[in-house]
Amino acid sequence: MAFIAIILNILNVDWYKTNYINGIIIVVVLGILQGSVLEFPIQTIATLLVGGETRMTKKGKSNGYTIVLNYNLLALSTDEIDECMETMYEAFMGNLSPNVSAVLVSATNAEDLKNYEIEVVQKYRSIIYDELYTEGISFAKDDFDSINKLHLEHVWKLYEDMNRTLFIQEYLHDICDRYAREFMVIHRVSRVLRKCGQYQDLMLLSDGDDEAFSYCDDKQYGKAARRYGEPLFYESEDVTNIFGRKFDYTMVLDGDTGVPKGGVFELLDIAAANPDRGIIQPSIKLYCKKTDTIFMHLETMRQFIYEPMTNAIMALLEQSAYFGKAMIKNRIYIDNVIGNRNNLIERVPIDVLSHDTFEAAILQPLYAGSTYLLEAPSFNFITWSIRERRWNRGEVLLAMYFWKTGIGKPMRWVQKKMLKEKFNETKLRTESKLDFVSSYVAYSALRQMIMKPLLLFYVIIHISVHLRYRYASIILVMFMVLIFPKFATCTRKNYKYVLIETLASILQFTPEAMVGCVRIVKAVQANLGANIRWVPQRSVEDEFRNSNPFISSFKHLWGYSLFAVVCGTLVILFLERAILITIMLGTLFLLPLYTGVTSLPLKPEVKEDATLAVIDIENKCECYEQCHVSRDSGLGSSISNIEYCTKL
């Protein structure tokens, strides 16, 4: 198909009127651009042929498997901590079992925030204790209707043959206390490998290693290496609780990743039927409330529309990408990605951001589309762009490792010139050999990223080339990207959403030929060591919530509108046949308006008084302490104390 496209491009050029060099350049650029977008119609055709329905993944019995729900956080504010802890609490209580633990691995620097993390964990432990105590009393009374159904099945039925009075007096406190203590936070000593290092060290701690041995070689990693033998985590009761437990699986999660009720049990059953897979990758479903922004609803809509294509391609490849949020088999991961003290592997580069590409290359994740994790979409175009820029920086780093001679060496040379004595040369200890499927998955984001400068270059150079059908090529490209995939996803039920998403995509992604190139340039600059200012997403969200979204949008994007006005004026005055540039500049000018409109909530939020919630948490903490005082003083769990707890 790419070869046919190149032939058609050659025939489309009027070589009698066109400079040969310009003609050759546009044929090459169009060939690469069309080759990059050909995967969209191929995926569409594949979806039409094999079907885009969700496949049910084979399951087994996982009664004995243990798992830790691992949330990873580097907090800059108490709000981030509150959000992460609430999400971790919901995941833990929605999948409560003797074999499930929850651990926040914190890389937070500020001491006051670290102390706050510990404080919030204690509050949630109190809540967990109180909720389970209440359920335990109901269980003792055979009042099963008032008990969470999953808790009844996975927790309380373990004690159904026990004498109820004995259960209350001798066991209930210890049961509740045991589960409360499985809600943990540990603070990492090192920042090596960032998030990837957080869950790697958690796995090693669980495996019985509490001192660093990986990424300690200063000959390999220079100043980025950590000290051999230093503690992995700061000493605490939770670190002691995890040490040597040898969890079978680690569910790697971000601070805002939700786990549906019972989802962990489904994933463990899938893992039981696929013991050779190092990663079980559930689908990621975006979710939002009616009070969330229009942009968030558009992102959720977009994912819903394209989900059939994801299902079809993953089924054909029999392999998935690793999305950075998935269930990992600890033994396979340690043996193939980290290594041990006598045989270091260290397959993930120490400075890489997109660690999941290297992990997926060796562990070949299984896509479990029948299960899912929950994640909130970006708040608006600004936060989406910030995330994209961060990902672009990761892709640039990947390119330096994928093509060490063509990209890696020149980039390292420029880094050395710019950073001088601050330059730190690093090496990859173990390279990953990618097969065809792994390569296709690994290079996917790079292919999409390179489309933007190619598209911009084409829009500019096509003015100097005489084409027989001037807009046929670019119309074909846009058709393959925006329209043709809808043939595999549009139905009578969702056609309205498809139309809305298509219109929004035109407004959002047409300026990407320019905006995307700016992001790539900043990502390259950041990798070269330039002092690039990265605006935290949460601060942008707070700004938009507390001010007029149109003013905030213009504050962040006014440069694009000004650029569009200046260039648009010059184009109208001095250029002919510049419709493509005019369209791009027009959507670029409208970008602040589009951002302002889509930053509005779909439905206004009704603020509630949070006082009751605070009082409730404090009461539950008091309840937790009261029960502990009663037990520790030798009084036992008397009925009066139990009634006191259940009332609260």
Account of the protein in words:
This protein has an eight-stranded mixed β-sheet with strand order 3-2-1-4-7-6-10-5, sandwiched between helices. The chain has a two-stranded antiparallel sheet with strand order 8-9. It has three domains: 1-57 and 276-606, no CATH class; 65-273, no CATH class; 617-647. The protein is globular. It starts with a helix and ends with a helix. It has 28 helices and ten strands. Helix 5 (111-140) packs across helix 27 and helix 27 (611-632) packs antiparallel against helix 28. By secondary structure, it is an alpha/beta fold.
List the helices and strands and how they pair.
Elements: H1 2-12, H2 20-37, H3 39-50, E1 67-73, H4 78-93, E2 100-106, H5 111-140, H6 149-154, H7 164-180, E3 183-187, H8 194-207, H9 218-221, H10 237-242, E4 249-254, E5 257-258, H11 263-273, E6 279-286, H12 294-317, E7 326-329, H13 330-338, E8 339-340, E9 343-344, H14 355-363, E10 366-375, H15 381-402, H16 404-419, H17 436-442, H18 444-461, H19 472-483, H20 486-489, H21 495-509, H22 512-528, H23 537-545, H24 549-574, H25 579-589, H26 591-598, H27 611-632, H28 639-647
Helix pairs in contact: 1-2, 2-18, 2-19, 3-12, 4-5, 5-7, 5-27, 12-21, 14-17, 15-16, 15-22, 15-23, 18-22, 24-25, 24-26, 27-28
Keywords: Membrane, Transmembrane, Transmembrane helix
Transmembrane segments: 20-51, 471-488, 557-575, 581-602
Entry keywords:
648 residues, alpha/beta, 3 domains, eight-stranded mixed beta sheet, two-stranded antiparallel sheet, 59% helix
